[in-house]
Structures are given as C-alpha cells and as structure tokens.
Design brief:
The protein is an all-alpha fold and 557 residues long. It has 24 helices and no strands.
Length: 557
C-alpha cells in the first residue's frame, strides 16, 4: 500500500472516531449522526412531514377519486397529466435550483412544500367530484415547479459535514420513509384496515392541514448558520487548488480535479444553466444519463402499477371504494416500512466501500427486483401484494448513492443547481415514460392486450440495468475525484481542499483589512480582491484552459 493510501486509511479512521461512528453498524451510525447533528434531524423531520402530508392526500382522496372516476383510463390519464408535470418541472427546475443557491435554502423548501400541499386543497372548493379531480391534477402541474430541485437533499447537504454525507443521505431517505409510515401508515391501518372508526374526507383534510402547519414550523426552526460558513469555505477553497496544492498532489490531474463553477452568465439565461451542467460537465453528464434511465424505468412502473394491482386482484371495473382504499394502502405501507433498513444500509456501505462502487453494484441488483412484479399475475392474492411493492421499493435504493455522487461532483456553491440538473434529467425521463405509456396503450388495445400490463416490468428492468453503462469507466481527463471511492483520491482531495480553504480565509481576512483601511482614508491594495470576487468560487488569477472550462473543472497545477 502506498504512503498516500496508508495516510488516507488513517485519516478515514480518525474521521470515523471523531464523528462517533467508528466501528459502528449502519443503524448506530445513522442514529449517532442524527443525535450529533440536530439540524439534520430537523431536516429529516420536515421532509417526513412534507411527504406524509402529500401521501395522506394521495391515499384517502386522489387515488380513490382516480380509481372511481377514470377506471380503466387511470394509467392513460395519469400519464397525460404526468407529461404536463414533467414539462413544467423540467423548465422550472434549473431556475429554482439556482434560486435556492442564492437565497436561504429554507425559502426554497417552503415553496417546495407549498407546491406539494396545494393540489388536494381544491377538494375543499369543488368536493370529491370529477371537477375536483381535474382541479387537483391541474394544481399538481402548477405545484411541480420545485419538484425537480431535490430541495430536502440539498438542505441536508447544507447542514452536514462532508465526511458524514453518505450516512446522512441514507438517513434522510430512511427517516422520511419512517415518518411517512408513522404519520400516514397508522391512520390508514386504523381507518381503512382495522376500521377503528368511520372517517370522511373532511376529517383527513383537517389532519393533512395539521401536518402542513407542523412542516412550516419545523422548517423555520432549522439553523443554517452553524455549518454554512465552514462548508462554503471548504467547497469554495477547491477553486484555488492550483495555487495551493501540496507537493505530493501536483501530478494527479487525472485522478483528482476540483469542480469549479462554469463561467458566469446573465440572469436571463438561467433556464439554460442546468442543461449546461448536464452536457458540459463531464461527471454530471454521466450521472444525469444514469439518472435518466433509472427514472424512466421507475416512472413507467409507477404510472401503470396502480392499475396493474387493481386489475390483477380483479377490482376493475367493479371494485368498491373500500376495496380500492385497502389495496392502495396495502400497496404503499409495506414497501415504505420494509425499505427502511435498506436505506440505512446503503448509506453505511457507501461510506465504507465507496459511493461510486456501491452505485455500480446496486444497479443490477435493483434491476432484478423489478421483475418481481410479474409474479402478481400468477399469485393474484392480496397477501402477496406487500411482497411485490416491497421489491418495487427496493429498486429505488440506487438513488441514495446517486444523489450523494451528484453532491460530491457539484461545482462549488452550486449544489442546489447540480441537484436540479439531475432532477431535470429525471423529469425528462418521466415525460418520455408517460408519453411511452400513452402511445403503447392504444397499440395494446388494438391487439387486445390492454390488460397485460405485466409486460412493462421486464422492459423496465432491461432499461434499469442500462444505467450501469454511463458510470462504467471514468470521465476522460477529469476522472471521478472524491466520488471514485478510492482512498488515495479521497485523501488527496481532502487535504488539498483543506489547504485551499485556509488560503481562501486568509484572502478574505486581508480583503476585509484592506477595506477597513480604505474606509479610514487609505487605499485598498490592488492585489487583494474583495470577498465578492469569490462569489462563484473562482478567482480571476486561476485561469483555466479551454478543456477545463468545458466540463467546469479545474486542474491543480
């Protein structure tokens, strides 16, 4: 083992012991992180409240209305409105992500929550009628402006030290699902399965409004000041690596590059920024391609799964409202509950084995799990449905390392925009997937196969495994940097970024002193740029060659 690798191993061990998770398992590591980082716990709680409030509306109102009013047209109508949602989310995702990077992240999280809460409130005006259903779906389209921005993960990234972010990502996914089971699953079991008491949609709307209020209260209590300064110092310091790289890192341009920001653009071109990241940034380009394929297969399954479950159990078109509610509940709760250990284990393994390595191994495993849904046509019983939806839930585990990789390769100061870029890719995949379902439905009806929705499962499993191709190998010239999972690259990037961070703090201090001297009547030193000069994390003196500017990265000299 090389000296750098040994030093990296020792550094990793010391970081684990300092963080309180050295030698711990996935559950204790996640719990210890949430106990140490109170702000991350608040982010998980707020995200869980947001998801639960949306799920209550979907379970008790929207899915039942769609099943009773649309019936056999359910998949097609969901795809039609899904296309509109994908278009709005794709166009608005980039500007909203940029907006989240420029302002307090809690503001963008509040807008994100409002957009998800607003649709079901139309029932209060139109009632549970066909007009109310169309009003709900129309408001879903309007509320999707922030759905591509992955605000909860960006907020969790802001309040977590970078060495804990793999575990934090898994904890966010697991915590949100656990709260969703607690706040949405328990009412479903009590009111729909065990019939503890009779309830109406008005009662559930009041419960949903209470969850919405708690969400905004918790969101306002999150403190971003404690970790924001140190995090920005570390991230922005990567832009100065070429001036401050230690002697041992000068020849490692191919294995470790810091991802500096793209050249500044005018505000009117903000819509184009996520697409610049998607196509010009060598690392994000590959991750966006994988995200597109994963999201395409997932969106198609999500679109047809509701109708497929109802048809396989013989509930369309003659199932009662109560039967549809029970199937909707059984098709949701077991997967959300049983996937919790998977999320925690994924985050833990990402930190132990390397995020990129784990992502590559998870893709074929989760692709195989997609085939499990086909068995429902053979075992058409309600008791078997939880096994199917649990397997479908585990197919989403690949998103945990993917989102951590996106945050790792994001340009300094543009984590939210990079998240939005991947979100735009996923929304574009959803749009293509919904259009695919709409085109396939008339064809299947023409050949009398409109009820054979099982054929979507093997097709989506094949597309899912193709997501492995973009992350095979390394980007030309740039490599994967810290995202590679190699201990040497992680150590070099950690040390170099820390040195550059200290350099950036010294420059900021000298600039502050120069401004104070200028205010007292002196002249500001010409060689000390003001802190605003580092707004995008790159100094004018750190000029890059054309190849570096194309992918938004800087090679340390």
């Amino acid at each position: 083992m090389s000296p750098a690798a040994k030093a990296a191993r020792d550094q990793s061990r010391s970081d684990g012991e300092a963080g309180g998770d050295g030698g711990r398992g996935p559950f204790s590591s996640a719990w210890g992180l949430l106990c140490r980082n109170r702000e991350l716990s608040k982010v998980v709680l707020a995200s869980g409240l947001q998801q639960s409030a949306s799920a209550v509306a979907d379970t008790f109102v929207i899915s039942v209305l769609a099943g009773t009013i649309w019936g056999q047209r359910m998949a097609v109508m969901n795809s039609t409105f899904g296309i509109a949602i994908n278009i709005v989310a794709s166009v608005a995702g980039g500007p909203f992500g940029r907006f989240g990077d420029k302002v307090d992240r809690r503001i963008s999280a509040a807008i994100f929550g409002l957009g998800s809460f607003m649709p079901v409130w139309a029932v209060l005006v139109f009632g549970p009628t066909e007009h109310g259903l169309y009003a709900i779906m129309s408001l879903k389209v309007l509320g999707s402006v922030a759905s591509a921005s992955n605000v909860p993960l960006a907020l969790a990234n802001d309040v977590t030290d970078f060495q804990d972010r793999e575990v934090a990502t898994g904890a966010v996914f697991a915590g949100v699902n656990m709260l969703n089971v607690t706040l949405n699953g328990i009412p479903v079991l009590a009111f729909l399965v065990f019939k503890v008491m009779e309830t109406s949609w008005q009662t559930m709307m009041g419960y949903q409004l209470a969850l919405c209020t708690l969400y905004f209260v918790v969101l306002c209590s999150i403190d971003l000041s404690s970790r924001f300064d140190s995090d920005q110092t570390l991230e922005r310091g990567k832009a100065l690596l070429r001036q401050d790289s230690p002697k041992g890192t000068r020849g490692r341009a191919n294995t470790m590059r810091s991802t500096a920001t793209l050249p500044p653009v005018e505000r009117c071109r903000a819509i184009r920024e996520p697409f610049r990241l998607i196509f010009w940034h060598k690392r994000l380009r590959r991750l966006c391609a994988s995200a597109f394929l994963l999201a395409f297969s997932g969106s198609v399954i999500m679109t047809v799964s509701g109708q497929f479950h109802f048809q396989s159990l013989g509930l369309l078109p003659y199932g009662t409202v109560q039967e549809l509610q029970v199937v909707a509940a059984v098709g949701m709760l077991p997967g959300q509950l049983l996937v919790l250990p998977g999320y925690l284990l994924t985050g833990y393994l990402a930190k132990q084995k390397g995020t990129l390595t784990l992502f590559r191994r998870l893709i074929p495993i989760t692709a195989f799990l997609k085939l499990f849904g086909v068995l429902l046509i053979v075992v058409s019983h309600l008791w078997f449905l939880p096994l199917v939806v649990t397997a479908e839930s585990y197919t989403g585990l690949a998103m945990v390392p993917l989102m951590r990789l996106v945050a790792a390769v994001a340009p300094p100061g543009r984590v939210g925009e990079a998240m939005s870029a991947v979100g735009v890719s996923m929304q574009a995949a959803g749009l293509v997937g919904n259009a695919f379902v709409i085109m396939m439905h008339p064809l299947m009806k023409h050949i009398h196969m409109e009820k054979q929705l099982w054929i979507y499962y093997p097709l989506c499993a094949f597309l899912h495994i193709l997501a492995l191709l973009p992350v095979t190998g390394a980007p030309s010239g740039a490599g994967w940097g810290m995202a590679s999972g190699r201990v040497e690259d992680h150590f070099v990037a950690y040390v170099s970024a820390s040195v550059a961070g200290r350099r950036w703090r010294n420059r900021a201090r000298l600039s502050s002193d120069a401004r104070a001297a200028a205010a007292a009547g002196g002249s500001m030193r010409a060689d000390c740029p003001p802190p605003d000069h580092f707004e995008d994390g790159v100094d004018a003196s750190t000029a890059t060659d054309s190849s570096d500017e194309e992918d938004g990265s800087v090679t340390p000299r």
